[in-house]
Design the sequence.
C-alpha cells in the first residue's frame, strides 16, 4: 500500500483551517442540552450575586419586614389565634391632677415623649419564602448567604492556587535545600487532619469573612503545590529550562511557558 502526502501548500491550508480546541469544546458543549441548562442556571446565580453585591437585591435582609414566623406567600396569612388578655376598662379617664403632686410636670413629659416618638411601620403578613422568628425575609437571607458563600469559595480557591503554584514552582525549579524545606512544610500540613488545621488557624486569625478565606487558602494549597512541583521537576531537565539563563525573568518566563499550559 502507498500513501500520497499532500503538497506543502495544501498541508499548510489544512493546518490553518483545523478546528481549534476552544471552538471544538464549544461545539460539543452546544450539543449537550443538560450542559446548556446548567450554564443558564450558573449565569442566573452569577447575575443574582452581582446584584446582591451592588445592593440592588436583598439589601434589607437584616430588616424585620414581616411578622414573626411569617408564612410563605403561597400559603396565605396565618390564622390569628385567640389569646387571653386583660380586659381594658371602658369609660372616661379619671382626672388625678388635683391630687397628684407630679401633675404640673405632665405637659413637660408629654413634650419630651414626642421627641422620642417612633412610628411603627406596617409588617407584611406573608413573605415569598416566609420569615424567621424576628420577621426577616428568608429569601433575602438566602440570596445574601449565596453571595457570601460563592465569594468565600472563589476567593479561597484563587488564594490557594496562587500559594500552591508559587511554592511548587519555586521548589520544583531550584530543587536542593529549597525543595527539601518546602517538602518538609508540605508533609507537616499533610500529616495534620484538615479539620484540626482549620480550628488552629481559626483560633489565631479570628472571625470574619476574610478570616475564612485565609484559613481555607492556608489549608488548601497542598494539592496545587504537588502538581506544579512535579511539572517543574519534569521540565527542569529539558532544553528550555536547562539552557544558559542570561537573566532571571528570561528563564522564569521560559519555565512557566512550558509548565503552566500542561
Sequence:
Amino acid at each position: 500500500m502507498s500513501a500520497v502526502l499532500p503538497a506543502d501548500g495544501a498541508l499548510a491550508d489544512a493546518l490553518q483551517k483545523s478546528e481549534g480546541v476552544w471552538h471544538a469544546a464549544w461545539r460539543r458543549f452546544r450539543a449537550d442540552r443538560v450542559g446548556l441548562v446548567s450554564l443558564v442556571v450558573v449565569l442566573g446565580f452569577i447575575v443574582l450575586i452581582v446584584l446582591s453585591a451592588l445592593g440592588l437585591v436583598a439589601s434589607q435582609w437584616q430588616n424585620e419586614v414581616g411578622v414573626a414566623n411569617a408564612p410563605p406567600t403561597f400559603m396565605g396569612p396565618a390564622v390569628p389565634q385567640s389569646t387571653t388578655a386583660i380586659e381594658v376598662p371602658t369609660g372616661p379617664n379619671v382626672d388625678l391632677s388635683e391630687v397628684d403632686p407630679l401633675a404640673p410636670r405632665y405637659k413637660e413629659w408629654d413634650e419630651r415623649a414626642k421627641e422620642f416618638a417612633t412610628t411603627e411601620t406596617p409588617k407584611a403578613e406573608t413573605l415569598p419564602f416566609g420569615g424567621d422568628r424576628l420577621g426577616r425575609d428568608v429569601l433575602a437571607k438566602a440570596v445574601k448567604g449565596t453571595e457570601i458563600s460563592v465569594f468565600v469559595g472563589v476567593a479561597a480557591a484563587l488564594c490557594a492556587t496562587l500559594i500552591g503554584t508559587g511554592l511548587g514552582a519555586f521548589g520544583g525549579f531550584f530543587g536542593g535545600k529549597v525543595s527539601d524545606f518546602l517538602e518538609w512544610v508540605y508533609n507537616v500540613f499533610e500529616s495534620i487532619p484538615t479539620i484540626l488545621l482549620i480550628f488552629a488557624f481559626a483560633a489565631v486569625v479570628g472571625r470574619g469573612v476574610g478570616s475564612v478565606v485565609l484559613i481555607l487558602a492556608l489549608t488548601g494549597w497542598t494539592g496545587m503545590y504537588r502538581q506544579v512541583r512535579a511539572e517543574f521537576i519534569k521540565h527542569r531537565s529539558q532544553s528550555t529550562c536547562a539552557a544558559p539563563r542570561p537573566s532571571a525573568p528570561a528563564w522564569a518566563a521560559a519555565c512557566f511557558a512550558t509548565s503552566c499550559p500542561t
